[in-house]
Amino acid sequence: MIEIPSDLHKDLVPLAFLLGNWAGAGVHEFPGSEKCNFGQEVSFTHDGRDFLEYHSHAWALDDEGKKARPLESESGFWRIDAERKVEAVMCRDDGVVEIWYGELADQKPQIDLATDAVARTAASGPYSGGKRLYGYVKSDLMWVGEKQTPEVPLRPYMSAQLKKVVSPEDVESWAKDLGDLPDDGIAFFK
Q1: Is the dihedral of CA 34, 37, 41, 44 positive or negative?
Q2: CB 125 within 8 A of CB 146
């Protein structure tokens, strides 16, 4: 279920499906890097202004599914305009800053983005751009990322399926909103 907070900036309503904390796993593979499964935590938050704040942390998983080592972290800000055009500014831990442009699909919660500008520090590896697709599918946040370098043409390198994280505070809030439920629980379904 997609909830729209009452204090969400009106321009961000089309992006409300992104809001919250998400966690899950995916696959990472790119020439020159070790192929691995990874875990990921993502958050999209807002403070009433006209942007979403974004944070992502990913880590490689060992054969038992446990955290093995950090893989990638990034943070940024996402906006959308009246024509459903999305812009994002992201900064990654490897010394890359990107400006992304794209759009929200018509009649479905799906965003296609492509890099418009890339800035790299001297410490970052080769990178010249990318594409991403985010979608809200059966209550999950799914995404796939493509990237290119001067040596490697644009190709998929990461994808993940993330589930909404439920906090104890969420459960407490939902419990207060249940109202009068029948004692036996069965009558609720009649």
Answers
A1: positive
A2: no
In the structure, how many helices (H) and strands (E) does the chain have? 1, 10
Give the Cα separation of 169 and 154 in Å (integer).
42
pLDDT at 109: 96
Tell me the pLDDT tens digit for each residue of 50-106. Answer: 999 999 999 999 999 999 999 999 999 999 999 999 999 999 999 999 999 999 999
CB-side neighbour CA atoms (13 Å) of 80:
21
Separation of alpha carbons 174 and 57, rounded Å: 28
Whole-number pLDDT of residue 95: 96
pLDDT at residue number 34: 85
- Residue 161 has a CB neighbour count (10 Å cut-off) of 15
Report the SS3 class of residue 128: coil
- Check residue 32 and give its pLDDT: 87
How many other C-beta atoms are found inside a 10 Å radius of the C-beta of residue 86? 20
Which residues sit opposite 73 in a β-bridge? 57
Task: Judge contact between 161 and 24, C-beta under 8 A.
Answer: yes
Cβ pair 164, 21 in contact under 8 A = yes
Q: At residue 17, what is the residue type?
A: F
Distance CA 23, CA 21 (A): 7
| Amino acid letter, 186 | I
C-alpha span between 159 and 130 (Å, rounded): 13
pLDDT at 25: 95
